[in-house]
Write a structure and sequence with these properties.
By secondary structure, this protein is an alpha/beta fold. It contains 6 helices and 7 strands. The protein has a single domain, classed as Rossmann fold. Helix 3 links the parallel strand 5 and strand 6. Helix 3 packs parallel to helix 4.
């Protein structure tokens, strides 16, 4: 789409006045949907998370590696990022780098991990994750978590 024609003007005659109604004929989908970057290693809950975000009207970009996460965060201006901590320390380093970069430090990051990974969750929190939750929590309370992360 070239974006050259955004509005179509329609004139509707009325008895005493003429009204103009502007209707949007086409527009980029990304203009109406906030972008969420998602990095996950474990298929479940990762794929469920992507589907739930799409159901909540987010445009979702799944990134396959941590370098892509950082590049996408710099270049695409996401509203938030959600990362799976299953990758361990490398994911926590990526969170710290996103928070250290002036171009990406404002992006809220929701990190999730297995319920038993308390040390990893604490490391992600220290790295700068906006919130760190368990896998069950993110699956069951995604809309509430998104609202809370975006208010921070």
């Amino acid at each position: 789409m070239d974006g050259s024609k955004v509005c179509k003007k329609t004139v509707i005659p009325n008895r005493s006045k003429r009204f103009c109604i502007f209707s949007i004929s086409h527009y980029p989908q990304s203009m109406t949907q906030p972008l969420a970057l998602v990095y996950y290693e474990k298929l479940m809950p990762g794929s469920q998370l992507v589907n739930r975000l799409q159901d909540l009207n987010y445009l979702v970009r799944v990134v396959n590696d941590l370098v892509s996460l950082q590049e996408s965060a710099r270049n695409e201006g996401p509203l938030l990022a959600i990362v799976d901590l299953a990758g361990g320390g490398a994911v926590c380093r990526a969170i710290a780098e996103l928070k250290a970069d002036a171009a990406t430090q404002h992006i809220p990051i929701i990190a999730f991990a297995g319920e038993q990974a308390t040390e990893l969750q604490a490391t992600a929190q220290m790295a700068g994750a906006t919130m760190v939750v368990g896998e069950a929590t993110i699956a069951n309370y995604l809309p509430e978590l998104l609202n809370q992360a975006l208010q921070v």
